[in-house]
Amino acid sequence: MTVMNLDKLEVWVNARNFAVIVYKEVVPILPASEKYNLVDQLKRAASSIPANIAEGHGRFHFLDNVRFCYFARGSLVEVQSHIALAHELKFLPVEAYQKMSSHAESLGKQLNNYIAYLKRSKQGEKEVPAGYNVHEEPAAYITDTFEPNSSI
Question: CATH homologous superfamily of domain 3-121?
Fold first, then answer.
């Protein structure tokens, strides 16, 4: 169904479902005056969680995958922060806040377990991860001398 069996990756499926809940159950509760502030930030952070898991999953080296999972975890904590703020500002009822907090905690544990699995499995360890460059000595760069007062 999806590229590289992404739909079989449980942490991605749960992260996607979490983002859908944010869009369908949290965003509609928030006031219209927050459309370009809290709502936009919340939607970006929520959609970033499964997107980063997916991007990491598409990488060949486990360190790249772990790095994108760290980004996903950061986005998850950002969502938790926005939800806590919305609750504190009385935009989000206690029940919705507790439901989302519980779901976020569960997803965070699953994401941490997935990161631990990736580190143990070291999939693609023979590949060169992103951020690591093959070093080559640069060739000499020769230019003609430019004389500012000469005509071209």
Answer: 23S rRNA-intervening sequence (1.20.1440.60)
